[in-house]
Write a structure and sequence with these properties.
Oligomer: heterodimer
CATH superfamily of chain A: Cytochrome c-like domain
CATH architecture of chain A: Orthogonal Bundle
Strand order of the largest sheet of chain B: 5-2-1-9-20
Order of helices and strands of chain A: HHHHHHHH
Distance between the termini of chain A: 36 Å
Helix content of chain B: 25-40%
Largest interface: A-B, 46 and 59 residues
Largest sheet of chain B: 5 strands, parallel
CATH class of one domain in chain B: Alpha Beta
Number of helices of chain A: 8
Radius of gyration of chain A: 16 Å
Radius of gyration of chain B: 23 Å
Number of strands of chain A: 0
Number of helices of chain B: 11
Strand content of chain B: 25-35%
């Protein structure tokens, strides 16, 4: 079974939800995920994440990798819930995080569009994160989303999910 | 380039540290209200109209004007169904009334000149528009000088149908009028051109028309390339669905059309002369004329841009989106145009508010119909890298080669859903 690649090596990074390669690369770009990071830090400080942080076993056994994945997904869920609770109004009005504005090409921004593709606005962030991770890992089969989910890191997915959850 | 506020903390950063419950846009508005920034967008296709809608939504404080020469937009995606007699052209037509109702000033006029230094656009009837930032969505123009024998009058006999509208209707009428047993010939151009899988979707649907309505007829595709988008998927479907109705001739098999004779309905290649009953010549293309007027097209005929802001590499203060740009790995599609427009709108709003635009991610998804209930797709995720939009490694790709009938039917339904969604977002 393939695992979501970002959460697999969570042991190394102590379950940081903002992988190093997602940090802004230079002074050129603003840091759209500042608020996300802040919220995650707040949640981490509250001890919610630490309680579920796996021991660093190098991710050797299948079982421990699987449980690390489950725990990481759960932690992500908590982080998203935390972001929502903390900053929902600000998030709703904030600029779409990188990648999010493209989604409404297929997922209608408003209700009443004749399409089999579901809306994202107002759905639970945890559900979007879980779906995207399942598409990316291949656990959930898809026609297109498996190919698209592979283009996003955990941190990017969480930011997109939190933003859509905050939309009406 | 004319980007401001590169290093200082941006207003957004400062606000992000403030009270979390206050919408940032509400706070930024009074500062900007001192002088209403003006953005003019030229071109009301998917790219330009998407940019107008997105900018209006992102920054209600900015005055947005959309300039478009035609009062009705005719969409290219799905127009191949019209050619194949499976859809009415009216289903492709959209007006601008909902865009006006959204608070965008829509000006139906032809843009004649751009004064980048004075930040002014000249329209017909001696009108001028001032702007703080200009967005051009020029679309494509046909290179009328690229194929000997093929000019605007030849296109009335051998339609290109690569801009939807009268040309689409003409090609359909010609197919309908053709006697059974005739040879339809399509000429496909070398890269780059609008909608890379488009000629092959059209070939599929014309073959579908011939198979179901004129079974003694045949389509010959003469190509200036050896490879094309979603090739394996198309070719395996053609083998299965249209073995007697579609023949593809690659560049190395002598497929490149070097001249046409519209009066004689003859297409010439290096080795042959082909007589057609109906000819669809898809000629080489370039960015729409306004790009040339503005000085934003380079020697290739297309427009180089900064992949984070979509600002022209050649003329500061002018942004570009859609088929006219050099978008690196991103194909010239309506989905790309819409995705680029939304990123560009955010960047324009950021720059006018002296914020530094974030590094974007963009998605493209292109569906093609091989038959009315048989869809295939290509998808990708892109980011700026080394100055161009680059596909993120490991992402994207085409539909599975061994897809079941159910998967193909699903993709055909997703294609239809996509059309409803994008036209709803942009024109609805």
């Amino acid at each position: 079974m393939k695992m979501p690649h970002e959460t697999l090596d969570s042991g190394e990074r102590g379950l940081s939800l903002v992988p190093r390669h997602c940090e802004p690369t230079g002074p050129r770009f603003a840091r759209p995920d500042d608020r996300l990071r802040e919220a995650i830090q707040t949640v981490e400080m509250a001890g919610l994440l630490r309680r579920y942080t796996p021991r660093n076993d190098g991710g050797k056994s299948r079982a421990s990798r699987a449980s690390a994945t489950t725990i990481a997904a759960f932690a992500a869920t908590i982080a998203c819930a935390g972001i929502l609770a903390l900053t929902a109004p600000a998030l709703a009005a904030s600029p779409a995080p990188p990648g999010a504005s493209s989604c409404t090409g297929c997922h209608p921004a408003s209700a009443g569009v004749d399409t089999p593709v579901p809306r994202l606005a107002g759905r639970s962030a945890a559900e979007i994160v879980q779906q995207m991770q399942a598409f990316r890992s291949g656990q959930q089969s898809a026609t297109v989303m498996d190919r698209l989910a592979k283009g996003f890191s955990d941190a990017e997915i969480q930011a997109i999910a939190a933003w859509y959850a905050a939309q009406k | 380039m004319a980007r401001k506020g590169k290093t200082a903390p941006t207003r957004r950063d400062v606000l992000a540290l403030g009270a979390a419950g206050v919408a940032t846009s509400l706070l930024t508005r009074p500062a900007l209200a001192q002088a209403t920034p003006r953005v003019v967008i030229i071109g009301g296709g998917f790219a330009g109209a998407s940019a107008a809608r997105a900018l209006r939504q992102i920054a209600p404080n900015i005055a947005v004007t959309l300039v478009e020469a035609n009062g009705t937009f005719t969409a290219c995606p799905f127009s191949n169904l019209v050619i194949a007699g499976l859809r009415d052209l009216s289903a492709q037509e959209f007006g601008y009334s909902r865009i006006s109702a959204a608070g965008i000033e829509v000006v139906i006029a032809k843009a004649l000149g751009i004064d980048a230094a004075g930040r002014r656009v000249t329209l017909d009837q001696d009108r001028t528009l001032r702007y703080d930032r200009l967005v051009l969505a020029p679309g494509i123009d046909i290179r009328w000088d690229a194929l000997p024998g093929y000019g605007e009058s030849a296109a009335e006999k051998m339609p290109h149908a690569w801009k939807a509208g009268a040309q689409t209707a003409l090609l359909r009428r010609q197919l309908e009028a053709m006697e059974d047993g005739g040879t339809v010939i399509m000429s496909a151009p070398d890269n780059p051109f609008r909608c890379p899988p488009g000629p092959y979707e059209r070939a599929s649907l014309i073959a579908h028309y011939l198979k179901t309505r004129k079974p003694k007829s045949k389509l010959l595709v003469l190509d200036a390339k050896d490879a094309f988008s979603k090739q394996r998927l198309f070719q395996s479907a053609w083998k299965e669905l249209y073995p007697n109705h579609l023949e593809w001739v690659s560049l190395s098999q002598g497929g490149k059309v070097t001249a046409v004779d519209a009066a004689g309905m003859v297409l010439t290649t290096d080795f042959d002369k082909h007589k057609a009953a109906v000819a669809n010549v898809i000629p080489p293309q370039k960015a729409g004329r306004i790009a040339e007027i503005a000085g934003v097209a380079d020697r290739t005929g297309w427009c180089p841009i900064d992949p984070a802001t979509f600002e022209s590499r050649l003329v500061p203060g002018i942004h570009l989106v859609g088929d006219a740009i050099i978008a690196g790995g991103m194909p010239k599609s309506a989905f790309s145009a819409n995705a680029q427009a939304k990123v560009c709108a955010q960047a324009v709003a950021d720059l006018l508010a002296e914020r530094t635009p974030a590094e974007p991610r963009l998605i493209n998804t292109c569906y093609s119909l091989v038959a009315p209930d048989y869809g295939i797709s290509v998808a990708g995720v892109y980011r700026p890298q080394n100055g161009v939009l680059t596909e993120i490694p490991g992402s994207g790709g085409v539909s599975v080669t061994d897809g079941s009938q159910t998967v193909r039917e699903q993709e055909a339904q997703f294609a239809a859903g996509w059309f409803n969604t994008i036209t709803g977002e942009v024109y609805g």
